[in-house]
Design goal:
- By secondary structure, the chain is of the alpha/beta class.
- The chain has two domains: 173 residues, Aspartate Aminotransferase, domain 1 (Alpha-Beta Complex); 249 residues, Type I PLP-dependent aspartate aminotransferase-like (Major domain) (Aspartate Aminotransferase, domain 2).
- The chain is 39% helix and 15% strand.
- It contains 14 helices and 16 strands.
- It has a seven-stranded mixed β-sheet with strand order 4-12-11-10-9-5-8, sandwiched between helices. A four-stranded mixed β-sheet has the order 1-2-3-15.
- A hairpin with a 4-residue loop joins β2 and β3.
- α2 runs antiparallel to α10, α11 runs parallel beside α14 and α13 packs across α14.
- It is globular.
- The two termini are 20 Å apart.
- The protein binds pyridoxal-5'-phosphate (PLP).
- The site of pyridoxal-5'-phosphate (PLP) has 15 residues, from α4.
Amino acid sequence: MNKEKSISAYRQSCEIIPGGVNSPVRAFKSVGGTPVFIDKAKGAKIYDIDGNEYIDYVGSWGPMILGHAYGPIVEAIKTQAELGSSFGAPTMLEKKMAELIVDMVPSVEMVRMVNSGTEATMSAVRLARGYTGRSKIVKFSGCYHGHGDSFLIKAGSGAVTLGLPDSPGVTRGIAGDTLIASYNNMESVEALFHQYAKDIAAIIVEPVAGNMGVVLPDIQFLRGLRDLATKHSALLIFDEVITGFRMAKGGAQEYYGIIPDITTLGKIIGGGLPVGAYGGRKDIMQHLAPSGPVYQAGTLSGNPLAMAAGIVMLETLRSKPSIYKELEEKTRSLADGLRNNLAKTGISGVVNQAGSLLTLFFTESKKVESFEQVMTSDKERYAKFFNLLLEAGIYLAPSQFEAAFVSYAHSADDIQKTLQSSLLAMQKL
Ligand SMILES: *Cc1c(COP(=O)(O)O)cnc(C)c1O
């Protein structure tokens, strides 16, 4: 496969963009080699600037649940562009978008639009702090909530500890307000509440973890978080930036039947344009300016182009409830096929699947249900697997610790080709 143009573009980009990319994972650092530069995409396929075609399982990290360049979304963007792309004043599109979200997401009675998932989670935490008058939050090691300062904190090796900054530039003061617990481990959360109950404004969690690779929640864990937050008058924030409109039309909260106080949304909600949102109970959301004292604003928030794209996306998902069953079945056939390939080749691994999300962990562990088990994965083996599949025209996430996103546009043929190539790749590991 010829990658000459991508290699040269990457070299030149590195001179003028830090690391050559506008978001770190795109640089292929954890799989080696250099990133392919994408020229265009359609359906389940992406094409690089050297003319190579790939079956795409990144899907822009989630938004492309209907496939790339979905006709009705393209039309909606074109139509709105002719009518103006930003006004900085309210529009009917924003009202329509809010109505759709309130209708689809069980816990959301009121919603505020922003421009990214990061903005949604940062704002949700500020709101939770403003509403409760408390300062600390509980997050889980291995869960990602965007790059806001409060979230760039990791746990010390499995222990329940006070946060330490994960990135230079995050102050100790901010890090100290983030308490770290272990995913799927209620005791670790109870221990934090035992010590800090009166200071904890919110628990923030990915209801299905997607950013350490896919880790399914134990339903008792999610229920336990709901009960504990209620008991201590803290808020439960479901970060549904990945799971929203993906696990079900109402997200993981519909899928698992658990009602959070605040929900953050992103990715799918913008139909491929930069959008985020956060919403929840009216009495909480009314704490936001201008109806309440908690400040949050945005010049381009509720942007007409993005709303036009998002509305078509959500209306499509709402009107075809069978989409989710089909996506889940398609993804299950991929997951089962990968497990068969592991068995045939004697390679150790675990395939976790939740709806249309999937991760193949190369690990000796029998199950992957915690961050600790995630960390037993063989990153070098994944890197080799990734590069073999890339050569075969299959574009997986360039990191072991990410999800594969299956879209409505992936055909049975795409899945078969992926499985055949993965069998060949595993034979070479
Ligand atoms: C992607 C993601 C974010 C951040 O969204 P951006 O749009 O990248 O800022 C937050 N939370 C979760 C769960 C995500 O997957």
